[in-house]
Amino acid sequence: MTTAAAAAASGWMPPPCTVPGARAGGVIDGGAPEGPLSAAWQRRRLDYRLVNPANRRRLKVIVVGTGLAGAGAAAALGELGYEVECFTYHDSPRRAHSVAAQGGINAAGDNTVDNDSLERFVRDTVKGGDFRGREADAFRLGEESQRVIDHLNAIGAPFAREYGGTLATRSFGGVQVSRTYYARGQTGQQLQVAGSQALLRQVDAGTVTLRTRHEMLDLVMDDGRVAGVVMRNLVSGKITAHTAHAVVLSTGGYGNIYYFSTLAKNSNASAAWRAVQRGALIASPSFIQFHPTALPVGSKWQSKTILMSESLRNDGRIWVPAKAGDERAAGSIPEEERDYYLERKYPAFGNLTPRDVASRNAVAQIRSGHGVGSLQNGVYLDFRDAIARLGKATISERYGNLFDMYKHATGEDPYAVPMRIAPGAHFTMGGLWSDYDQMTSLPGLFVGGECGWGYHGANRLGANSLLSACVDGWFTLPYSVPNYLAPLLGTAPLAPDSAPVQEALTRTRARVDSLLTIGGTHGPSHFHRILGDLLYEGCGVTRTEPSLTATIAAVRQLREQFWSDLRIVGSAERLNQELERAGRVADYLELAELMCVDALDREESCGAHFRDEHQVDGEAARDDEHWAFASAWQVDDGHFVRHHERLTFESVRLQTRNYT
Amino acid sequence: MRLVIEVWRQDTPQGPGRYETHTVDDATPEMSILELLDRLNDQLVENGLEPVAFESDCREGICGACGVTVDGNPHGPQRNTPSCHQRLAGYADGQRIRLEPLRSAAFPVIRDLVVDRSAMDRIIAAGGHVAIDAGTAPDANSLLVPHESAERALDMAACIGCGACVAACPNGAAHLFVGSKLTHLSLLPTGRQERGKRARAMLSEMEQDFGPCSLYGECARVCPAHIPLTAIAAVNKEGLRSFFRQKDD
Predict the structure, then answer these.
(1) d(CA B59, CA A112)
(2) What homologous superfamily does CATH list for B3-111?
(3) Any CB–CB contact under 8 A between B1 and chain A?
(4) Domain architecture of chain A: domains with CATH
(5) In chain B, residues 154-193 whose CB comes closer than 8 Å to chain A
(6) How far apart are the C-alpha atoms of A220 and A235, rounded to whole Å?
(7) What confidence score (pLDDT) does residue A8 get?
(8) Most Cβ neighbours (<10 Å): which of A36, B66, B121, B187?
(9) SS3 state of residue B4
C-alpha cells in the first residue's frame, strides 16, 4: 500500500471521498503477474518458493471454516505434509453452507463444439461482474476449473452422466454455452460431502487436527503479521489461543446481515470483520446479490427466506397487476390487466434477465404498489401458460420437487395459482481484499471462498461460486500459502505465554464480558431483525443518497441501543447460543455502516449496486472514467479510509451491459 | 393457535434432564417446528429465562444440522421430512407437542435438544473417502460412468448426515448411513479401488458406537433424503465381500 501522494504520482486519482467520517487513502496493488494474463497463473506458480517435503511438517497452517474452500485448503495442505489445524463452529465439517448450492459448478473448456473456451469464460465472468472484479483472478478461475471437476469427481462427487458415460453439462446463469456440471439440484451438497470426506481422510492420516464446535473470535497479531487465532469452544465456553505460521479464513459470506436471507442461520461475518478490525482491508462491502426467486416473507415469525431455483424462470412468466393496489385474486385478473413487465421491457431476454435486473424490476413494481400477496411484497411467477403448452406432466417432471417445496412452505398449489416470489439477500461479492496470491493486506492471513472478493466483481454469475471456492481451496492456496511459509522454516509459532497471545486472549475475554454485562431487555435477534429491515430499505436492491444517509444514522442509533439494551441470558461457561448470536449481531452493526458508506461513496451503478441517481433509461449507469477501481476499506478507529485498486481489462473491452 | 410445548431441558451432558412446559399463543400452521422453537425462545428471553438450545442451520433440508424428536418421532410426525420442513399445519389449537433430542446411546446429549453426533464422522474418517490427492486425479471424462450408476450413486450420496436413522432404530444402528456411503463409493470407478479396505475400516469403526441391524426398517421411514432400505443390505454384503476376499479393492 502506498500513500495518496504515490497515487497522485501514478497519474490517476479516484474521485475524492465525500462521505462524512470517511476519506480517500492510497493506491493498492493486486500483484497480478506482468504480461499476458492467459498464462499468468503458470508464470506465478513458477515463481513461488517451495518447501522440501521433509520440512513441511515443521510448518503449521490454521484453516478456519470447512466449506468448499476451507475443507479443500486444509485437505490439500495436509496431503502435501504440512501441519494443519482446522476449525468449524458446526458439529461436523459437512454442514458448511456450500452444502446448499443447487444449480451447479462451471468449468471452462472446449470439450464440446459449442465454442466455449478459457477466454470466453473470462469474458462472461468479467462482463457478468460488470467490470468491477480482477481480471487476472478470473483467468486463474477458468484455468483451474477443469482440474476442479476432475478432482471432485475422483474423490466421490457423482456428477450427472450422459448415457455414453461422459459428464453431462447444462447451460446456466445467462451464458450461451453449456459449461455447468451438476448433480441434480444438489451440486453443492455433493461437492461439500466429497470435500469434507477428503478432509476427514487427512484427520485419519494425522496431518489435520479438526476442532468442531469452535468459533473464531479474534486473530493473534505479532508485529503486524497474523500469527494465530482465538477460539471459543462453543460447548465448554473455554476461550483458547492457537498459533501457526499462517492462517486461512474461509468463513463464507455475510448476506445474513439482512436477517432475511437465503443463507444458513449461522453464516456470519464475524471472522472476516475481526480481521478488518485488526487492519485487513475489505473490498466492495456493498456488492450484494439479491436472488430474484426467493419466497416473500409471509409471516412475522418466519426465520429466513427460502430460495427457489432460478431454473423456474425458464418456464414461469413473471407479472403483476397493471393497476396498483389491485387486490383481486390472480385468477380473476384478466389478461389485458396483467403487466408481464420483464417481457415488456426486455423482449430479448424476457423472464431470463440476469439476477440483478430481475430483482431490481421486482422491487420497483412492489414499491410502486403493484406487489401481490397479503403483504403485497411479492410478484407472480406464473406457470399457467407453460402448463397449457407443455402439459402438467412435463412441468411436474421439470420442477416437481420445487413445486412440492413451494406448496409445503406456503400451503398454495402452484399448479393452480401462480407462485409468489421476491428478491432475497443471497451472495456477497464483496469481502476481505486479497492480492493475486489470496493473501489479505495482513501478512500471514489468507482468504478463500465467499469471504474473499475478486472473481465476481459487482455481480456473480450462476455456478461460479462453487467454482471459486473450490479453486481457492484445492488449487490456489496449496501453492500460494507454501510460498509464504518457505522463509519461515526454522521459526516456531508463537508460544502460548507470549505477549501477543496473552493480549489477544485478554481482548477477547473483555469483549465477551462486555456483551454479557449489558443487562438490558432484548435478545440479539430483536436487534438483528430491525437491522435487516433497515438494510433492505436503505441499502438493498436499489440505493439512493438519502436512503443511505438515513440508514447510516439509523444503524448508528441501533448500535447504541444494542450496547445499552442487550440481554444475554445464561453464562459464557457453556453452550450459549444467545451469546453466539449477540457477538455476530454486534459485528453486523459495524459492518452495516461500512456497507452503507461504500454504497454512498460509489457514485455510479454497477451490477448489483444500483444507485437510483445513476441510471440511463432505468438501466445501471456505470462510470468507468471515475470508478473503474475496487474500493478497499480500512477501518481505523471508527473512521473509514478508502484505498483503491485500479481495474484494467485486457481480454474484454469495457462495455455497457445490455439485456434489452 | 395456542400450542402447549413440553420440551426437554438438560443443562449438562451428565444430566439429569427434565421436561418443562410452556405455551406459545401465536403459532401459525405454516410455521416449522424450528420456528416454533424460535418463537418460544423469543418469549423465554424476553422473560429473562434461558432459551432452549437446539441445532439448525440451512433450514432448507440439506445441511443435516437440525433434528429433534417430536411426539416420539425423530424429525417429526411427517415421514421422510427434516425438522426444518415439518410444519405445524397438522396441529390443532390447544394441542400438546412434546420436543426432545434425538435419542440414541451413540448421541450423548450436550444440552437441551443438542446432541453429539461425532460418532458418525468417525466412521467417515475411518474409511468413507477416496485416497486421491489434489492434482492427481485423472480426466473425469476418461473414467466413463454409466448413467444409471451415476444416478444410483447420487441416490445413495444424498444422505444429509442428520442421524435420524440412528435415533429411529430400536437398536441404535447406523446401517442406513454406512450402507449408503459404501454403496455410493463402490459405484464410482475411483471409489472402487479400495472397496474392500473401506468396508473393513468403516464397519469396524461402526461397531464401536452403534448397534446391530434387525431389519426393523424404521430408519428408511424417517430418512429426509429418502435413502432406500436396500442400503442396509450393503453393509452385510460389503462386509462379507471384503472378509472373504481379504483384498483392498
Answers:
(1) 38
(2) Beta-grasp domain (3.10.20.30)
(3) no
(4) 51-290+427-488 (3.50.50.60), 291-426 (3.90.700.10)
(5) 154, 157-158, 160-161, 184-185, 187-188, 190-191
(6) 22
(7) 56
(8) B66
(9) strand
Residue A369 to residues A26, A373, A420, A534: CA-CA distances in angstroms? 45, 12, 15, 20
For the record, the C-alpha cell of A109 comes out as 473448456
CB contact under 8 A, B154 and A183: yes
The domain spans of chain B are 3-111, 118-245
Q: What are A365's three cell numbers?
A: 413494481
Four-way CATH pick for B118-245: 1.10.1060.10, 1.20.120.530, 3.30.360.10, 1.10.1740.10: 1.10.1060.10
Cβ-based contacts of A150 with chain B (< 8 Å): 137-140
Q: Tell me how far apart the 2 most distant CA atoms of chain B are, in Å.
A: 64
B115 SS3 class: strand
**Does position B187 have pLDDT exceeding 60, yes or no?**
yes
pLDDT at A412: 87
Write the residue in B42, B57, B191 that is nearest to A156 by C-beta: B191
Active site residue A420: no
Residue B246 Cα distances to B2, B55, B128, B198, B201, angstroms: 60, 41, 18, 12, 12
Residues making up chain B, counted from first to last: 249
Backbone angles phi, psi at A298, to 5 degrees: -105, -20
A355, A420, A584, A642: which is the annotated catalytic residue?
A: A355
Are residues B223 and B165 in contact, defined by beta-carbon separation less than 8 angstroms? Answer: yes
- Residue where the block lists cell 456488492: A287
DSSP conformation letters of B158-203 = T-----HHHHH-TT-B-HHHHHHHHHHHHTSTTGGGGHHHHHHHHH
Name the grid cell of B184: 455410493
Query: Do A264 and B30 make contact, defined as CB atoms within 8 angstroms?
Result: no
Q: What is the pLDDT of residue B56?
A: 97
Encode A626-653: b = buried (16+ Cβ within 10 Å), e = exposed: ebbbbbbbbbeeeebbbbbbebebebbe
CA angle A561, A565, A566 (to 5 degrees): 110
- Residues A618, A584: contact at Cβ < 8 Å? no
Least confident of A169-178, A282-291, A320-329, A585-594: A169-178
Backbone angles phi, psi at A367, to 5 degrees: -70, -25
Give me chain A's average pLDDT, please: 94
Look at residue A2 in the predicted model and tell me its pLDDT: 46
Are the beta carbons of B134 and A304 separated by less than 8 Å? no
Asked if the bond preceding B138 is cis, omega within 30° of 0, the reply is no
Looking at residue A218, its pLDDT comes to 98
In this prediction, residue A1 has a pLDDT band, given cuts at 50, 70 and 90, of very low
Which helix or strand (DSSP H or E) is residue A22 part of?
Answer: strand A22-27
Beta strands in chain B, from DSSP E residues, in sequence order: 3-10, 17-24, 68-70, 73-74, 96-101, 109-111, 114-115
Cα separation, A551 vs A535, whole angstroms: 7
| pTM score | 0.97
- Is the model more confident about A101 or about A47? A47
* Nearest-10 crossing angle of helices A577-601, A545-565: 160
Question: Is ipTM beyond 0.85?
Answer: yes
Query: Tens digits of per-residue pLDDT, A210-256?
Result: 999 999 999 999 999 999 999 999 999 999 999 999 999 999 999 99
Measure CB to CB from residue B141 to each of A166, A197, A201 and give the nearest one.
A166
Chain B residues lying within 8 Å of A101, measured CB to CB? none
d(CA A477, CA A62): 12
Whole-angstrom Cα distance, residue A341 to residue B28?
34
Residue A397 is predicted with a pLDDT of: 80
CB distance B40 to B132 below 8 Å: no
The partner residue sitting opposite A165, judged by closest CB among B144, B153, B185, is: B144
